[in-house]
């Protein structure tokens, strides 16, 4: 059952690491401008990184989110809820939609997805140097099952157990806050796109172990920082130190691992976001959204792209 639970946890990560872009369109009338100002001021007070881009009478608002915020890390989600409640429409991260058949396929292939091929261990895939790093990180572990675990799930374990990443078990993040506010205020919201369950399952089954080597190396770097890696990242997020979040070993690891490191799923996620942002820039009304911070602020990401096109991007420094 443990391997099945691990597989399901990976499927959940698609939603946890999903994307979302938001746009806010300002009306030219004074009431509309005042309402837009309220949205921007309240969102900025929350402590979540946020940027605005104006195009004519449309203003795009992007809130950068991370997952795995420690439950005891205080930030001001009430301000972000208030801002979201004043929006006309909200775009949320992609949804992974799995059928009963997809779940049965996961169960049937759990051994293939969660374990290395029979008789193989991590030492058969990692370089001597990386295996030595792994041995050092795992020293003291009485259970040696990690040696035979698939490289993808070994990476998730390193991030969770050694780097302190809580994922869905963490406290409310910006996506949770905005979704809750939208329901309460009866604001229209929808996911920016979907990924079919059969595509998710196929990506997990078909990928060779070698495809996960960059993920393991990045997860090892995060694990070597220790359990404070996740808290340091979250503290930087709350303090709007965007470049430090992007540079953190844990954030780099999450970007190298599934789904963002998957050559089939990742381009699909990014393309859905690119299309959503283009639509948001010409849509009337106040539209708000939340997107993974790295998608926005990484080199060559959304913010760099908007700036390169001549838009004035207003918000915290991201590089």
Structure report:
This protein has helices spanning 2-16, 30-45, 77-85, 100-108, 110-114, 128-138, 151-162, 174-185, 197-206, 213-225, 228-238, 242-247, 249-256, 265-280, 293-297, 302-308; strands spanning 50-55, 58-65, 89-92, 95-97, 188-191, 194-196, 287-292, 313-314. The longest helix has 16 residues, at 30-45. It is built from 16 helices and 8 strands. Helix 2 (30-45) packs antiparallel against helix 3, helix 3 packs across helix 8 (174-185) and helix 10 runs antiparallel to helix 13 (249-256). The relative contact order is 0.22. Strands 5-3-7-2-1-8 form a 6-stranded mixed β-sheet. Strands 4-6 form a two-stranded parallel sheet. It is globular. It is of the alpha/beta class and 319 residues long. 52% of the residues lie in helices and 11% in strands.
Which oligomeric form is depicted?
single chain
Q: Kindly report how far apart the N and C termini lie.
A: 44 Å
Classify the beta-strand content into a percent band.
5-15%
- Give a count of the beta strands, DSSP E runs of length 2 or more: 8
The spatial strand order of the largest sheet comes to: 5-3-7-2-1-8
Radius of gyration: 20 Å
Gross geometry: globular
- What order do the helices and strands follow? HHEEHEEHHHHHEEHHHHHHEHHE
| Largest β sheet strand count, sense and barrel closure | 6 strands, mixed
The helicity comes to 40-55%
Average pLDDT number: 83
Helix count? 16
Low-confidence stretches: 1-31
Class inferred from helices and paired strands: alpha/beta
């Amino acid at each position: 059952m443990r391997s099945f639970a691990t597989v399901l946890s990976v499927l959940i990560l698609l939603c946890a690491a999903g994307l979302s872009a938001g746009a806010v369109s300002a009306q030219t009338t004074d009431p509309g401008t005042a309402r837009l100002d309220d949205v921007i001021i309240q969102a900025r007070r929350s402590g979540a990184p946020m940027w605005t881009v104006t195009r004519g009478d449309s203003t795009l608002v992007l809130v950068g989110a991370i997952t795995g915020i420690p439950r005891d890390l205080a930030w001001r989600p009430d301000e972000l809820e208030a801002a979201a409640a004043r929006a006309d429409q909200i775009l949320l991260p992609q949804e992974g939609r799995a059928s009963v058949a997809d779940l049965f396929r996961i169960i049937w292939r759990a051994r293939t997805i969660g374990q290395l091929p029979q008789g193989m261990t991590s030492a058969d895939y990692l370089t001597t140097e990386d295996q030595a790093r792994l041995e050092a990180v795992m020293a003291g572990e009485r259970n040696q099952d990690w040696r035979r675990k698939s490289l993808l799930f070994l990476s998730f374990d390193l991030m969770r157990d050694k780097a302190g990443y809580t994922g869905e078990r963490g406290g409310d993040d910006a996506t949770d806050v905005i979704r809750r506010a939208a329901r309460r205020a009866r604001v229209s919201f929808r996911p920016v796109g979907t990924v079919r369950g059969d595509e998710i399952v196929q990506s997990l089954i078909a990928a060779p172990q070698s495809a996960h080597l960059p993920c393991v190396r990045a997860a090892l770097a995060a694990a070597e920082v220790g359990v404070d890696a996740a808290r340091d990242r979250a503290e930087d997020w709350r303090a709007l130190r965007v470049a430090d979040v992007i540079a953190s070993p844990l954030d780099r690891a999450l970007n190298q691992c599934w789904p963002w490191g998957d050559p089939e799923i990742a381009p699909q996620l990014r393309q859905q976001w690119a299309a959503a942002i283009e639509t948001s820039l010409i849509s009337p009304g106040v539209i708000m959204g939340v997107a993974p911070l790295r998608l926005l602020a990484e080199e060559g990401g959304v913010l760099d792209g908007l700036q390169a096109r001549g838009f004035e991007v207003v918000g915290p420094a991201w590089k």
